[in-house]
Each structure stands twice: as C-alpha cells, then as structure tokens.
Design goal:
This protein is 34% helix and 29% strand. By secondary structure, the chain is of the alpha/beta class.
Length: 136
C-alpha cells in the first residue's frame, strides 16, 4: 500500500485551534444536540485521560458519527481514526490543537478531510459548519 491509497470512506472533520478556545465544548454541545434530537449511542460517551476530553459513537439520520476531543497529540488522533474506522463510522469529528493538524492533513488514506479553525468562530458558528460538513 502506498501513502496515497484510499483505505477508508470515513470523513474526517478536524476542529482545530489554540488551547482553551472552546473546541471540546463545541463537540460536547454538538453531541448533546444530536442526542436531544434522537441520536442513538453506539459507543457510549466515555471520558478520556485529560479533564473534559471524551469520545463516543452515535447513529443519527442514517449516519454513524464519532467524536473524539483528545486530539492535541498525534498518537491519540491516529488511535481514534483507526478505532472509529474499524467501527465503521461514516464521520469522525476531532478537536485538535494546531500542532496536530499538519500531521492529520497529510494522511491521504482519507480523501474527505475537512479542517475548521475555531479561533475566530463562535461555538454556534463552529457547530453549524460541522453540521453542514457532515450533511445534517
């Protein structure tokens, strides 16, 4: 397999920005919003190693949507991608610091990458952009 071969149809959405700009809050609010609308938890929300960070997998409107807010380092990003790809997620939404974005955007195995910078967006704007990007 070469670096440019497509191995998955999972869409990756990276919400990136500086430390404490609200990335994890946006993911938590988006997840809560979709659950309020009737999303079914496939992998229940679980807290990760850092305070406030979480991951889960839901099904909503015929899509399997994964969330991971522990994306400030490369290894957790790679782990989340592999884990949720194996669970056949259609979309993985990751919160990440800018430092990790460069590595993630280089991964050509996932052709449908989207990178959204949070720093200059309100939480509501960021959430609406993510919803649009995942077709909801």
């Amino acid at each position: 397999m070469t670096q440019n071969e497509v191995v998955s149809n999972m869409k990756l959405v990276m919400l990136h920005g500086s430390h404490n700009c609200g990335k994890t809050t946006v993911l938590q609010n988006l997840l809560n919003h979709l659950i309020d609308l009737g999303a079914k938890e496939i992998v229940p929300r679980r807290k990760l190693i850092w305070e406030g960070d979480f991951e889960c997998l839901i099904e909503y409107s015929g899509k399997r949507i994964a969330f991971s807010s522990f994306g400030d380092y490369l290894f957790p990003i790679i782990r989340a991608i592999g884990y949720f790809d194996a669970l056949q997620a259609d979309v993985l939404i990751i919160a990440s610091s800018k430092n990790s974005v460069q590595h993630w955007t280089m991964d050509r195995r996932y052709p449908d990458n989207v990178s959204i910078e949070k720093n200059h967006l309100s939480d509501e704007q960021a959430q609406n952009i993510i919803l649009s990007e995942i077709g909801l």
